[in-house]
Amino acid sequence: MARGPRYRRPFRRRAEGKTDYQKRLKLLKSRKLRLVIRASNNHVRVQVVESKLGGDKVLISAFSKELTSKYDWTPNTGNIPAAYLTGYLAGLRAKKNKIEDAILDLGIFYHRTRVLAAFKGVLDAGMNIPYREEFFSEDMDEKVKGSHIENYAKLLKKDEPEVYEQVFSAYIKNKVDPSKISSNVSNTLKKIENNA
Fold this sequence. Notes:
Elements: H1 12-15, H2 21-29, E1 34-39, E2 44-52, E3 55-63, H3 65-70, H4 80-96, E4 103-105, H5 112-124, H6 140-145, H7 147-159, H8 161-167, H9 169-173, H10 181-195
Parallel strand pairs: 1-4
Antiparallel strand pairs: 1-2, 2-3
């Protein structure tokens, strides 16, 4: 370990790669509500957070596991369509609680495509959050519908059936056809709109 009079150890959360304190300070100085999107390998969490002196207060929260328990989503909760649906759910909850605008808090930016899909869901729900159009890839609309999963599943099923069964084993185990995931997305979206 480094020693000496000029050695300065970083804060624990920075050393763990969880918090960028310079970026966080800029966000806190704005005194606006923050839209916090965090993704792991299996789940996505979207929150609207109010910063206070004693600590942050979560005003709205949506977790991708809610899709399976409340909205009959059967595919994986860690994929791009699930991230979009989670963001959409959070956006509708925010609108219901009269939260119209916020600023985006990406933190240390992991799982880029899923985080952007969740952000797109929040925007499509009607929240007003500043962003640049170049932020999203050109095929983001197709990805949130799950067409990339469908195309890959069809290709593998036709060319390499053994690889298809290995790659999509969790879908097959849950009796989900990955080549028809866009219908799952549209059905879950309708249920979210009706029940959120």
